[in-house]
Amino acid sequence: MKSARLLNRREFNGLCGALGSFVASSGALALDAATAVALNGTAQTVKFRDGAAVPAVGQGSAGLGQGRHPAAEEEEALRTGLSLGMTLIDTSGDYGAGRSEELIKRVIAGQRDRAFVVSKVEADDVTRGAMARACEASLTRLGTNYLDLYLLHWPVSNDHFPEAVAGFQRLRAASKIRSWGVSNFSVRQMEDLFRIPQGDRCATNQVPYSIGDRAIEVTYCHGASSMVCR
Fold first, then answer.
1. Which of 185, 119, 129 is nearest to 158 (CA)?
2. pTM (global) more than 0.70
3. Res 218: pLDDT
4. Are 187 and 227 contacting, i.e. CB atoms less than 8 angstroms apart?
């Protein structure tokens, strides 16, 4: 049995091309979005209500920058994703106490315009009036002067919705962020947020969805309002 090894970017791209040829000739497999981008060079996007075009496929970084793998390998993995069209990179100042953002800084250096960078502010930064400081800290660690999307990582109580919205709007007016949204909100919480003045400026609710976690398919299809997301 051969031992497993990591593919470099050229080998991976070559396999994607070979897979594409097989699919085109046999019709036996469906291309995933990343492979389709690698083959035709066209990035798939979705549009926010404010008209912003957002990459449909992205990369998470919750486990990066924490010494689990060599930093050079983690950086190369993200660069490979960028080269394949997975240009959205999601992070948070809370991931590895900011080390994830610092790693991403090295990845996007010299190609910031290719990346759609998403970071997050924590609920306690909202409640203690520290949203602006948290955003500046993330911008510094990422080596950029703006975020494409800034999310509230976890819900705050409804009493704090107005200050969260106001904080996001101030950051947007100052060109520190281009869009803002929330993460891990239930349907009920989204309904309550939209009742706040300018709450409907919220561009998105980031919720978990993967092969191992498909609960959203049932939760949102049935209109449940008690989902707690990771």
1. 185
2. yes
3. 77
4. yes
